[in-house]
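Revision sheet: structure tokens.
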Amino acid sequence: MSKQEEMYTLVNEYRNSGLSAKAFSKEKGISPSTFCYWIRKKKDEDQPGGFVEVTKGLNSSSGELELIYPNGVKLQMNAADLGLIARLVKLY
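Predicted:
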């Protein structure tokens, strides 16, 4: 088992443990900062990234647009302001 596989297994174990990251890492004999690194790395890998296809919805004639970021934040706005939409997309 590679180091990454080993740490991801521990991260999954931690998520199901109900313990804080600090308590879990102490119990497993791992430096808290090292363990937090692997938690972030696994989280980044688990989250979908990049862009998704945009399709017209049922209310596309209304001119409204819903922008959903990978972290789940949803923004609803008028689709006419393309400059605003471009700036909001670049925020993520």
